[in-house]
Design goal:
There is one protein chain. By secondary structure, the chain is an alpha/beta fold. The chain has two domains: 192 residues, Spore Coat Polysaccharide Biosynthesis Protein SpsA, Chain A (Alpha-Beta Complex), CATH 3.90.550; 83 residues, no CATH class. Helices cover 40% and strands 19% of the residues. It contains ten helices and nine strands. The longest helix has 19 residues.
């Protein structure tokens, strides 16, 4: 692995995560490459999450707990991004990498060493992360999603890249459009498929399912999804996720409502163009019956795949 690993700070927006927060805290304390600072941004927790975080902060001077100062709205998207930005503003010394990390995860001790090593090895790596497993029927399974994208529960950004894309957008879809903006500007998105973490509460589990699908549809409209691709996505989600059929319908309805209302779309035409280019390729592959070959293989090129010993390049 590269000798000098980049510095990083972690920002964790939380609300009512007491059940699992200690897992995340213990995982960060145990990292072989520790963060220079961890900022926990509490958004009005009422279950003791803040008090638990403050106990860890009292034991470790690199942990800080602050308030989000928001309306405590239970929603995905804008509140999370605003809390993340508030946490970034509280970072005392500019790190080379900043991480948006959920508060209900378990990460292996080497997690951020591998992430940092990937940034060190690839100067154009802009966004890096592993893959998440979720509990389902008594076992851990891969969280549904595109393995070409870093899961939003643990996204590490090179600061230069984050600034280049204009930061995160306070809207549902923030954890997708960021990567298209990065790719459009020549940054690499590295999904380390050999590096896993445990996510105890799947995305959207704190929202009612139909509301979550509606908001996701609105987020897809904001990102600039092609209508044809959104229709295919909604049909697929209506089959594989609960509630069946109705969930997919609400996803498409949220998208259609936003487009009919002409709600604003992402203010980054380069990111939107990159997104639509990928979707056209995937749509063409679906029509040819080759959906799995639309955009190439994931970037499984993290430390587990690197050569070791005197011949390492």
């Amino acid at each position: 692995m590269p000798g000098a690993l980049p510095t990083y700070a972690v920002v964790t927006p939380v609300r009512d995560e007491a059940e699992n927060f200690a897992r995340t805290a213990e995982a960060l304390v145990s990292q072989t490459h520790p963060p220079q600072q961890w900022v926990v941004v509490d958004d009005g927790s009422t279950d003791g999450t803040r008090e638990l975080a403050e106990r860890y902060a009292a034991e470790h001077d690199w942990i800080d707990v602050i308030s989000a100062g928001a309306s405590h709205e239970r929603a995905r998207g804008a509140p999370i991004v605003r809390a993340f930005q508030r946490g970034c503003d509280a970072v005392r010394e500019r790190p080379q990498v900043v991480v948006k990390l959920d508060g209900d995860l378990y990460l292996p001790p080497h997690y951020f060493e591998w992430v940092a090593a990937t940034f060190a090895r690839d100067p154009r790596a802009g966004i890096v992360g592993g893959v998440a497993l979720i509990p389902e029927e008594g076992r851990w399974v891969l969280e549904r999603g595109n393995l070409l994208n870093v899961n939003g529960v643990a996204k590490a950004y090179r600061m230069d890249c984050l600034e280049d894309i204009g930061g995160l957008r306070p809207m549902m879809g923030w954890d997708g459009i960021d990567e298209y903006g990065a790719r459009a500007r020549g940054w690499h998105v590295r999904v380390l498929t050999e590096l896993t973490l445990l996510h105890y509460k799947p995305r959207g589990s704190k929202q009612k399912p139909l509301k979550a699908r509606w908001e996701e549809g609105r987020g897809s409209a904001y990102m600039g999804y092609l209508p044809a691709w959104l229709l295919i996505r909604a049909a697929y989600r209506g089959v594989v996720e609960k509630p069946p059929v109705l969930g997919g319908f609400m996803l498409f309805a949220g998208y259609a409502w936003a487009r009919l209302r002409r709600l604003p779309q992402i203010d980054d035409p380069e990111a939107r163009a990159e997104l639509r280019s990928e979707q056209r390729a995937r749509l063409a592959a679906v029509l040819r019956g080759r959906a799995g070959h639309a955009v190439g293989a994931p970037n499984s090129d993290g430390p587990a795949y690197w050569a070791t010993g005197p011949d390492e390049q």
